[in-house]
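User: what does the whole thing look like in 3D?
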Amino acid sequence: MTLLKRIAPQLIALVALIALVSIVFPGFLSVQFIDGRLVGPVIDVVKRGAPVALLAVGMTLVIATRGIDLSVGTIMAICGAVAAAALAGGWGMAPALAAGMLTGAAAGLWNGVLVTVIGIQPFVATLILMTMGRGIAQLITEGRILTFTDPGFAWFGSGTLLGLPVPAWLWLLTGAGVALLMRRTALGLLIESIGINRRASALAGVNATVLLIAVYMASGLCAALAGIVVTADIRGADANNAGLWLELDAILAVVIGGNSLLGGRFSIIASLIGAMIIQTIDTGILLAGFPSEYNLVIKAGLVLVILVLQSPRIAAEWRLWRDSHRVDREARLEGKAR
Amino acid sequence: MNTRALPLYATIAIFLIAYLLCWLQFPNILSTRVIGNLLTDNAYLGIVAVGMTLVILSGGIDLSVGSVIAFSGVFIAVMLRDTGLHPLVVFAILLAITTAFGAAMGFLIDRLAMPAFIVTLAGMFLARGAAYMLSIDSVPIQHPFFKTLQSAYYLMPGKGRLTLIGVLMILTVVAGMIIAHRTRFGLSVYALGGGEQTARLMGVRQGRTTMLVYGFSGLMAGLSGIVFSVYTGSGYSLATVGTELTAIAAVVIGGTLLSGGAGYMFGTLVGVLTMGLIQTYIVFDGSLSSWWTKIVIGILLLVFILLQKGLLKLSRTRLA
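Assistant: Here's the predicted 3D structure for the full assembly of 658 residues, as structure tokens:
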């Protein structure tokens, strides 16, 4: 029940958005069952939203610790390039997957060590990999778009399992798994405590250093998975464009999910709904026949609205205004009673 | 010795050593032609980095500048194509728009008390989206006045061309040095970057200073957009993706503390030239690929951040 209350604003926003898109494009909600798989615009949204949704899972954890991970988009490119290079080198599917995921974990470890051991602000620490990352990815692909023809690997991008596209399963399972891990154990609570006050939680016996590194590694792993999905989908690693600007979409998804950028309480499910809201906007704009240029402007407007809603200063002023009104009204009531 | 100036000395030393190493391998790199090109090719980056330096000194960050440069180019190209206005009038309108845009972001950062990077992130989306809405295609600029601007240069001894935009960059850096180091506003910026609470207690008008800082960054981004449009002779909405990161990197390599409050405007110029030198070296070498630029810049960024961390720790232990 508390969960429903927590994600209510996001759910209402998503439903309203779907209703809006349905008005402009009536067939939006229609889903058909063709050749053993579901087909329809909604399924498309769930599939195409997979990279941002996967990134949002890791980003939620990082933001809950009062950090930020700007490097996820480039980690996607690097991991995609590593996996594609492994396939092109004849390694086979499983080793290629493992190589991609290991690269993501290593990238996360790098970020985590910079943040915790060396003590650089998260925003700066991850900026380093963001600047370097595409160069590294291009180094691996040698500046070309590295293509491969491994049907097993391509299945992760364009395959179908039990009617649903595989990328959709990936983010649903990752999201559910991480959310359960966070809430069925004390991990979620510990991460929140680090986000609210790292020093205090360290003094209380929370091993903040290890946890923070683990959180950045989780973000790296999520990015690696997203990179594998994108690479498998186009059957090639594009070092320049894979994951370009997706870090911003992921942050936006987390913020739409009502998670504060100032750390603390978080909800992975709300972030995932946020990711779906973003993808519905993207797809809706295309379906409605608007040019996709409107996308960025709408996203900018969205960020602005959320900023106003989250702003600590506006919230304080609103409370002041409400309280002063209450005092006025009580004074008036008292006056009447006399 | 002043520990604050140490990153600046390190920057200058690295630049000179790197230049020396390049010169040993390719003696021609010291010719005025190469130096002239170094200034011309990095003019837009240098100008936008001046604005970024001030923002970072104030303890903030401006992620919108790359998009604003692209918007400026498209705006100029579309206005010149569709209206009969003289380019100088268009420049004036554009600078007013970008300055107001920056000031509006500064206003929001101050009023909403939200992190600067998320507000300027929205600004980045907005400016890029506005550029897309004006035109998706690359728009050529054919106005004769642009030809005049492009062909305006001073022939240095050795046939090197000191172009108008190269000179403009130097002048901007000088203006930035005066603003940052010689005015009351500059002092407020340093105070704000050193600590908001103390700055307020000292009587710095925080809201006004924040607005002015981001307004200045917007102005510089607009100016950089003009320079970029002169440099490329066109306006393209997908241009200068990621320039904000390059500018931040140049500022940090220039020895400015990323958390604000300490740094020198001159260092930024050296930072920009160092990055230009890396690119020039890669062109001279011929066998190295351009992606090495990004990797080397990333490594330099890391080295300088670690250096700053070390210095900070050093000065703290000395205080304690």
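In plain terms: The longest strand of chain A covers residues 32-34. Chain A touches chain B through 46 residues (CB under 8 Å).
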